[in-house]
Amino acid sequence: MDRPSDCQTNGGLRGSQKRRGGVRNGLLATVCLSAVLAGCAGPAGPAAPGAAPARTEPARTDAAPAPKAAAAPGGPVEAADRGAARVPAAPPLLPGLARQEEEASSEAVARQETAVRTALETAQRWGLERPPLKALPRPATRARLTPVQGVKLADGRPPVVYRVPTDDKVVFLTVDDGAEKDPAFTRMAEELGIPFSAFVSDYLARENYGYFRDMHAQGVEINNHTINHRNLKVLDYETQRREICDQQDQLEQQIGVRPRLFRPPYGEYNDETLRAAASCGVQAVPLWNEEAFPDHMEWRYDDRQLHPGDIILTHFRGTDIWKATMPDLLRKVVNDVTAAGFTLGRLDDYL
Question: Which CATH number is 154-350 given?
């Protein structure tokens, strides 16, 4: 028979022990409470030597598996995890700005490929051997003119320029007079991105200044080539001045811009011509080193080559004179210039 515990016999003490009962009851209550709490919480440490083994309950088959205890950093669980094969993590999404830059880069490549393809198709449509070389960016400032080959300077006179001082492989197409007004020519130049400058005489342009206004609207400067296209070198000063200044006024009225550049007909001029031009506000007098025709080029120098800054002359003429069209002329010029490794620039941007 099991021996009753002190807690169970506490109530059966004889009267001789009652004087000590209050103190002992309190102590026993404390001990009993401590034992109960200890039994609930489980042993706090290893059992004392000789102590009876703790009673264990059989494993329950219907119980949910206990959650895996988290291992301390560097412990055996973490070490095992490090040795196990891991599923590769999904690559992180690019931040918003980087994603936009990547998309912008792809779009830029696509735009460039489209531009190259379009340029080739346009060149083929106009019968060119290859697309013209891309025009150089417009220079921030115009060339500073000094007395070198191709430039003639005199005090109080606008400079006379056959070749613009530049190291860039660029040449300049200029078209004179204004007799032929072929819309296919300006359309071809616009579609191919070919810049040029026009020098117009009133007696040829006055029947249709609208053609030249449209040309100006697409970026072509309309410059002065006198009223009546006379040889100025044989005229007196006042007559020369009227030829030049009256055309300045006419172009300002018809086009909306007073020209900066003036070219004397036939390239003929004298000091009186330059003095008259200066009085009308002319800033430079460009002449030329080459003259273009639909089937050949005429050269000023024996090397028969283009040079950086060369000015090319041609004319607004059609099949009645050339037996060819203005697009035929432009095709010849662009093919020759491109084959020589040059690009065409706009003279007014440089001079």
Answer: 3.20.20.370
